Amino acid sequence: MAFKPPAADIRDMAHIQVHREDISLDSPTLVEGLPGVGLVGKIAADHLVELYDMEYYASAHCEGLPEIAVYGTDDPDVRPPVRLYADADRDLLVLQSDAPISPSGAKEFASCMVSWFEANDATPIYLSGRPAEKDGVPDVYGISTGDGAGMLAEADVNPPSENGAITGPTGALVHESQRMGLTSVGLIVEADQRFPDPEAARALLQTGISPLADFEIETEALVEQAEEIGRAKAQLAQQLQENQEESTSAQPLGMYQ
User: Which stretches are transmembrane (predicted)?
Assistant: First the structure.
């Protein structure tokens, strides 16, 4: 009798596990918050989740993600490191990440996530910091895939002033979105390369995310809690600085020529 291998267990397959089927979303906007330069994406994403008391909606079980268990203050329940939170009133999803993503797994991770975005008619807003010496309010500019250029023009977000590339896991997500023809936008902000940068995250929220998602976002807390945010996220920022391949970053193309 020939050996018949066991059927694949969904627990062994890359997938997004939805935990709240009762939450109804209609072509949601999705804000991506992977760790990167200045932790701008993570700070912006964490702010949205806290500000709107968003619901834990789904968890990512994709190749390339660290197999760690995350826990929070005064909460015994553990969760995976990459999660999606939902706000049905604003038709909003936020991708929250508590750990860097290995460069060796970025391609598989991006394929897993972008396929789910497409299947659920989500429009991603990808976030990245560009190392820069800032003078005043950080500049924000946008890039696009699919029909995203029209969204940027309507939101009055400027295009880049120079050639460049987005690296790291967010770069893989943008690349996969472009490959699949998914409509998305990427927001790039001047940010501090060495330390968490709440000021740059605030610029992303006010200049890009708010007009693109079409709702006002209160950001005063980011200013008032800047020092506290910096302390809380300093260790992750240091880890990313030491392992730059795991960090999302926007860089001039001259660095690669």
Answer: none
Q: What pLDDT was estimated at residue 99?
A: 82
**What is the band of 2 on the pLDDT scale with cuts at 50, 70, 90?**
very low
Tokens of 87: 């706000």
The pair of three-digit structure tokens given for residue 133, joined into one six-digit string: 């010496």
Pairing type for strands 184-191 and 249-252 reads unpaired
- CATH number of the domain at 169, please: 3.40.50.10900
**In whole angstroms, what is the distance from residue 97 CA to residue 77 CA?**
17
What distance in Å separates the CA atoms of residue 157 and residue 149, rounded to the nearest whole number?
Answer: 10
pTM above 0.90, yes or no: no
Q: For 55, what's the count of Cα atoms within 13 Å in the CB-facing half-sphere?
A: 16
Decide if 70 contacts 98 (C-beta within 8 A).
Answer: yes
Instruction: List the beta bridge partners of residue 165.
Output: 251
Domain assignment present for 113: yes
Instruction: For 226-248, write each residue's pLDDT tens digit.
Output: 667 666 555 655 655 555 554 55
Contact 124, 56 (CB under 8 A): no
Tell me the per-residue pLDDT of 34-72, one tens digit each, with 9 for 90 and over.
988 889 999 999 999 999 999 999 999 998 888 888 888
Query: 170-188, pLDDT tens digit by residue?
Result: 999 999 999 999 999 999 9
Domain limits for position 222 = 25-256
Domain count, the chain: 1
